[in-house]
Amino acid sequence: MRLGRIMGVDLYLNTFFLALLGLFFVAGILGKGLVAFAVVLLHELAHVACARYLGVLVTEVELLPFGGVTRMGSELVLDPVKEVYVAAAGPLCNVIMVLLGLAMKNYGLWHDELGPFFLQCNLLIAAFNLLPALPLDGGRVYRASLAGRMSIKEATYRAATLGQVFAVAVVLLGSLGLFLGFTGLDILFTGLFLFFAATRERGMAPYLFMGQLAGKKGEILRVGVLPVQSLIALEDVPLGKIVKPFLPQKFHLVLVLDRQWQYKGFLTEAQIIDGLLSHGVDLPVGRLPLHPL
């Protein structure tokens, strides 16, 4: 459900969060529901503010029960340092709000029922989002830490798989707590939605990888210099296999050998990407015009 536009970004309330607010209303604790809404909103606006400061495009914000999703340009994923800064902004905002809440308590600006819930909500959102699992903030930091060693696609698969594992654990624990009467439906719903969101992140991995390949020319034009990574491939290896180990923020040179290990020539990453886009993933790399050393 679209709530409006704030800081120039469209703001949406996820159906699960709306249902959770409904449960708060039925239980007679809507005030706590609104506190949770405000905490999640400020968490996401911290992401938006940090992304804007770093020059990253922000398209929309969707508020979820466990923190929300701020949708940004794909260039953020291709810059691990920026992704870490933007991801950390949300939990950092929650920590700052906890400190402000404690200060307000010490100055007598305190509500006996909502004040402790405000602190609890901030700590819970910050701690939950630090789990190293997509789509949570910790998952984005984990993916960024992997991006220097593997492709964006593989890094996203690993972080999203952890998200699915954590989601299953939350569902199982939530079901047990519901059966024993310790928890309500909110924990179970949160786990189900986390699984859905992690699966959606996993499905986006191939598109992020294609964005990485397509954006490499623009990246080197923008920064001027990139570290070089060398690879060796046999001439009959298809282009689709050649590009799999390509990393963001590195430029690749591929030395091509025949089956007798004799040197045939080399190709730059740009030439391989052009060849892949023109001829498809199945073209053997040796069919492209090779450069002698």
Automatic annotation (TrEMBL):
Its cofactor is Zn(2+). Residues 37-103, 117-168 form the Peptidase M50 domain. Keywords: Hydrolase, Membrane, Metal-binding, Metalloprotease, Protease, Transmembrane, Transmembrane helix, Zinc. The keyword Transmembrane applies. InterPro entries: Peptidase_M50. The chain crosses the membrane at residues 12-41, 84-104, 116-134, 179-198. It comes from the Bacteria. PANTHER family: MEMBRANE-ASSOCIATED ZINC METALLOPROTEASE M50B, STAGE IV SPORULATION PROTEIN FB. Belongs to the peptidase M50B family. This is Peptidase M50.
